[in-house]
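Posted in: Protein Modeling Q&A

I'm a second-year student putting together a small comparison for a lab meeting, and my supervisor asked me to include a predicted structure for DsbA family oxidoreductase. I've never done this before, so apologies if this is the wrong subforum. The sequence is pasted below exactly as I got it from our records. If anyone can share the C-alpha coordinate output, I'd also love a short note on what stands out.
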Amino acid sequence: MKVEIWSDVVCPFCYIGKRRFEDGLRQFGHPEAVEVVWRSFELTPDFQPVPGQSIHDSLAAKKGVSPAEGRRMNDHMTGIAQEVGLAYDFERAVPANTFLAHQLVHLGAHHGRQDATKERLMAAYYTQGRDLNDLETLVELGAEVGLDAAEIRQALAAGTYAEAVRYDEYQAQQIGVRGVPFFVFEDKYAVSGAQPAELFAEVLGKVWDEAQAAKSQLVAVAGQADGPACGPDGCD
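Accepted answer (user: helix_wrangler)
Welcome! Here is the predicted structure, written out as C-alpha coordinates:
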Protein backbone atom coordinates (compact mmCIF):
# COMPACT_ATOMS: atom_id res chain seq x y z
CA MET A 1 0.00 0.00 0.00
CA LYS A 2 1.50 3.31 -1.05
CA VAL A 3 0.94 6.58 0.79
CA GLU A 4 2.30 9.73 -0.84
CA ILE A 5 2.73 12.77 1.39
CA TRP A 6 3.23 16.27 0.01
CA SER A 7 4.83 18.53 2.60
CA ASP A 8 7.37 21.27 3.19
CA VAL A 9 10.30 20.96 5.56
CA VAL A 10 9.49 24.32 7.17
CA CYS A 11 5.75 23.76 7.47
CA PRO A 12 4.90 23.46 11.19
CA PHE A 13 1.76 21.43 10.59
CA CYS A 14 3.72 19.07 8.30
CA TYR A 15 5.96 17.92 11.15
CA ILE A 16 2.94 17.62 13.44
CA GLY A 17 1.11 15.75 10.68
CA LYS A 18 4.07 13.40 10.30
CA ARG A 19 3.83 12.45 13.96
CA ARG A 20 0.07 11.98 13.81
CA PHE A 21 0.37 9.85 10.67
CA GLU A 22 3.06 7.73 12.33
CA ASP A 23 0.76 7.25 15.31
CA GLY A 24 -2.08 6.28 12.99
CA LEU A 25 0.22 3.85 11.21
CA ARG A 26 0.95 2.12 14.52
CA GLN A 27 -2.77 1.95 15.32
CA PHE A 28 -3.46 0.47 11.89
CA GLY A 29 -1.48 -2.64 12.76
CA HIS A 30 0.16 -3.46 9.43
CA PRO A 31 2.93 -0.85 9.12
CA GLU A 32 5.14 -3.27 7.21
CA ALA A 33 2.59 -3.23 4.37
CA VAL A 34 2.78 0.54 3.89
CA GLU A 35 5.25 2.32 1.61
CA VAL A 36 5.53 6.01 2.49
CA VAL A 37 6.74 8.33 -0.27
CA TRP A 38 7.56 11.94 0.57
CA ARG A 39 6.69 14.47 -2.13
CA SER A 40 8.04 18.00 -2.36
CA PHE A 41 5.93 21.11 -1.84
CA GLU A 42 7.43 24.57 -1.29
CA LEU A 43 5.10 26.89 0.57
CA THR A 44 7.14 29.91 -0.55
CA PRO A 45 9.33 28.87 -3.50
CA ASP A 46 10.53 32.42 -4.14
CA PHE A 47 11.47 33.09 -0.51
CA GLN A 48 14.69 35.04 -0.07
CA PRO A 49 16.13 34.83 3.47
CA VAL A 50 16.92 38.12 5.18
CA PRO A 51 20.10 37.81 7.29
CA GLY A 52 19.32 38.18 10.98
CA GLN A 53 15.54 38.14 10.54
CA SER A 54 13.72 36.15 13.21
CA ILE A 55 11.11 33.55 12.36
CA HIS A 56 8.54 35.75 14.11
CA ASP A 57 9.33 38.73 11.90
CA SER A 58 9.43 36.54 8.80
CA LEU A 59 5.98 35.13 9.56
CA ALA A 60 4.64 38.60 10.33
CA ALA A 61 5.88 39.91 6.99
CA LYS A 62 4.35 36.96 5.14
CA LYS A 63 0.98 37.27 6.89
CA GLY A 64 0.87 41.06 6.95
CA VAL A 65 0.59 41.23 10.74
CA SER A 66 2.66 42.74 13.53
CA PRO A 67 5.79 40.98 14.86
CA ALA A 68 3.96 40.52 18.15
CA GLU A 69 1.15 38.71 16.36
CA GLY A 70 3.70 36.60 14.50
CA ARG A 71 5.18 35.57 17.82
CA ARG A 72 1.73 34.77 19.23
CA MET A 73 0.99 32.55 16.22
CA ASN A 74 4.25 30.68 16.68
CA ASP A 75 3.63 30.27 20.41
CA HIS A 76 0.26 28.74 19.59
CA MET A 77 1.91 26.33 17.15
CA THR A 78 4.46 25.36 19.80
CA GLY A 79 1.61 24.26 22.04
CA ILE A 80 0.09 22.09 19.33
CA ALA A 81 3.47 20.51 18.60
CA GLN A 82 3.90 19.61 22.26
CA GLU A 83 0.76 17.48 22.05
CA VAL A 84 2.59 15.07 19.72
CA GLY A 85 5.90 15.18 21.58
CA LEU A 86 7.68 17.83 19.50
CA ALA A 87 9.60 20.67 21.15
CA TYR A 88 9.51 23.51 18.63
CA ASP A 89 12.09 26.22 19.33
CA PHE A 90 11.04 29.23 17.26
CA GLU A 91 13.51 31.46 19.07
CA ARG A 92 16.34 29.64 17.28
CA ALA A 93 14.60 28.81 13.98
CA VAL A 94 16.22 30.32 10.86
CA PRO A 95 13.83 31.27 8.02
CA ALA A 96 14.78 29.21 4.99
CA ASN A 97 14.21 28.57 1.31
CA THR A 98 13.69 24.80 1.14
CA PHE A 99 14.52 24.02 -2.51
CA LEU A 100 17.88 22.46 -1.64
CA ALA A 101 16.43 20.62 1.35
CA HIS A 102 13.81 19.00 -0.87
CA GLN A 103 16.53 17.90 -3.26
CA LEU A 104 18.33 16.29 -0.33
CA VAL A 105 15.18 14.34 0.53
CA HIS A 106 15.12 12.98 -3.03
CA LEU A 107 18.76 11.97 -2.72
CA GLY A 108 17.83 10.20 0.49
CA ALA A 109 15.07 8.35 -1.38
CA HIS A 110 17.60 7.21 -3.98
CA HIS A 111 19.50 5.47 -1.19
CA GLY A 112 16.48 4.17 0.74
CA ARG A 113 16.88 6.84 3.42
CA GLN A 114 14.06 9.21 2.51
CA ASP A 115 12.10 9.13 5.75
CA ALA A 116 15.25 9.42 7.85
CA THR A 117 16.38 12.40 5.77
CA LYS A 118 12.99 14.11 6.06
CA GLU A 119 12.91 13.56 9.81
CA ARG A 120 16.45 14.87 10.28
CA LEU A 121 15.75 18.05 8.34
CA MET A 122 12.54 18.80 10.20
CA ALA A 123 14.14 18.19 13.59
CA ALA A 124 17.11 20.35 12.64
CA TYR A 125 14.89 23.23 11.58
CA TYR A 126 12.25 23.16 14.31
CA THR A 127 14.16 22.01 17.37
CA GLN A 128 17.83 22.84 16.79
CA GLY A 129 17.92 26.15 14.94
CA ARG A 130 19.95 24.77 12.02
CA ASP A 131 20.21 26.91 8.89
CA LEU A 132 18.76 24.95 5.96
CA ASN A 133 19.86 27.69 3.56
CA ASP A 134 23.46 26.61 4.12
CA LEU A 135 24.89 23.92 1.83
CA GLU A 136 27.40 22.63 4.36
CA THR A 137 24.68 22.30 6.99
CA LEU A 138 22.66 20.16 4.58
CA VAL A 139 25.74 18.06 3.84
CA GLU A 140 26.27 17.47 7.55
CA LEU A 141 22.62 16.60 8.20
CA GLY A 142 22.50 14.19 5.28
CA ALA A 143 25.70 12.51 6.40
CA GLU A 144 24.18 11.98 9.85
CA VAL A 145 21.53 9.69 8.32
CA GLY A 146 24.04 7.69 6.30
CA LEU A 147 24.35 9.58 3.02
CA ASP A 148 27.77 10.23 1.51
CA ALA A 149 28.93 13.80 2.14
CA ALA A 150 30.73 14.14 -1.18
CA GLU A 151 27.69 12.87 -3.08
CA ILE A 152 25.40 15.28 -1.24
CA ARG A 153 27.65 18.22 -2.01
CA GLN A 154 27.92 17.27 -5.68
CA ALA A 155 24.19 16.55 -6.13
CA LEU A 156 23.04 19.78 -4.49
CA ALA A 157 25.60 21.90 -6.32
CA ALA A 158 24.64 20.36 -9.66
CA GLY A 159 20.89 20.37 -9.05
CA THR A 160 20.70 16.63 -9.74
CA TYR A 161 17.30 16.31 -8.11
CA ALA A 162 15.93 19.77 -8.91
CA GLU A 163 13.68 18.41 -11.65
CA ALA A 164 12.33 15.74 -9.28
CA VAL A 165 11.28 18.48 -6.86
CA ARG A 166 9.58 20.42 -9.64
CA TYR A 167 7.77 17.30 -10.84
CA ASP A 168 6.40 16.64 -7.36
CA GLU A 169 5.10 20.20 -7.29
CA TYR A 170 3.60 19.78 -10.77
CA GLN A 171 1.80 16.65 -9.58
CA ALA A 172 0.49 18.57 -6.57
CA GLN A 173 -0.91 21.22 -8.87
CA GLN A 174 -2.53 18.58 -11.09
CA ILE A 175 -4.40 16.93 -8.21
CA GLY A 176 -5.42 20.22 -6.64
CA VAL A 177 -3.19 20.42 -3.58
CA ARG A 178 -3.59 23.86 -2.03
CA GLY A 179 -2.06 23.27 1.38
CA VAL A 180 0.16 20.77 3.13
CA PRO A 181 0.50 18.22 4.54
CA PHE A 182 -1.53 16.37 1.93
CA PHE A 183 -1.80 12.58 1.96
CA VAL A 184 -2.79 10.34 -0.96
CA PHE A 185 -3.55 6.68 -0.26
CA GLU A 186 -3.12 4.26 -3.17
CA ASP A 187 -4.03 7.02 -5.67
CA LYS A 188 -7.60 6.72 -4.41
CA TYR A 189 -8.20 8.54 -1.13
CA ALA A 190 -6.88 11.94 -0.06
CA VAL A 191 -6.53 13.45 3.40
CA SER A 192 -5.73 17.14 3.73
CA GLY A 193 -4.00 18.57 6.78
CA ALA A 194 -2.56 17.27 10.05
CA GLN A 195 -5.61 15.20 10.92
CA PRO A 196 -5.96 13.11 14.10
CA ALA A 197 -4.11 9.79 14.20
CA GLU A 198 -7.42 7.95 14.39
CA LEU A 199 -8.45 9.25 10.97
CA PHE A 200 -5.21 8.08 9.40
CA ALA A 201 -5.67 4.65 10.97
CA GLU A 202 -9.24 4.55 9.66
CA VAL A 203 -8.23 5.38 6.09
CA LEU A 204 -5.35 2.90 6.17
CA GLY A 205 -7.75 0.24 7.41
CA LYS A 206 -10.25 1.04 4.68
CA VAL A 207 -7.63 0.76 1.93
CA TRP A 208 -6.31 -2.46 3.48
CA ASP A 209 -9.78 -4.03 3.68
CA GLU A 210 -10.55 -3.11 0.09
CA ALA A 211 -7.28 -4.65 -1.08
CA GLN A 212 -7.95 -7.87 0.83
CA ALA A 213 -11.50 -8.07 -0.54
CA ALA A 214 -10.25 -7.57 -4.08
CA LYS A 215 -7.89 -10.52 -3.69
CA SER A 216 -10.81 -12.80 -2.83
CA GLN A 217 -13.00 -11.59 -5.68
CA LEU A 218 -10.93 -12.69 -8.66
CA VAL A 219 -13.19 -13.73 -11.52
CA ALA A 220 -12.30 -16.47 -14.00
CA VAL A 221 -12.55 -15.12 -17.54
CA ALA A 222 -11.68 -18.21 -19.59
CA GLY A 223 -14.94 -20.10 -19.13
CA GLN A 224 -16.48 -22.40 -16.54
CA ALA A 225 -14.00 -25.27 -16.75
CA ASP A 226 -10.33 -25.15 -15.86
CA GLY A 227 -7.92 -25.49 -18.78
CA PRO A 228 -4.88 -27.76 -18.89
CA ALA A 229 -2.36 -26.86 -16.18
CA CYS A 230 0.52 -28.14 -14.08
CA GLY A 231 0.55 -28.52 -10.31
CA PRO A 232 2.76 -29.94 -7.54
CA ASP A 233 1.73 -33.47 -8.52
CA GLY A 234 2.37 -33.07 -12.23
CA CYS A 235 0.54 -31.87 -15.32
CA ASP A 236 -2.94 -32.61 -16.58
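A couple of things worth pointing out for your meeting: The longest strand covers residues 2-7. The radius of gyration is 22 Å.
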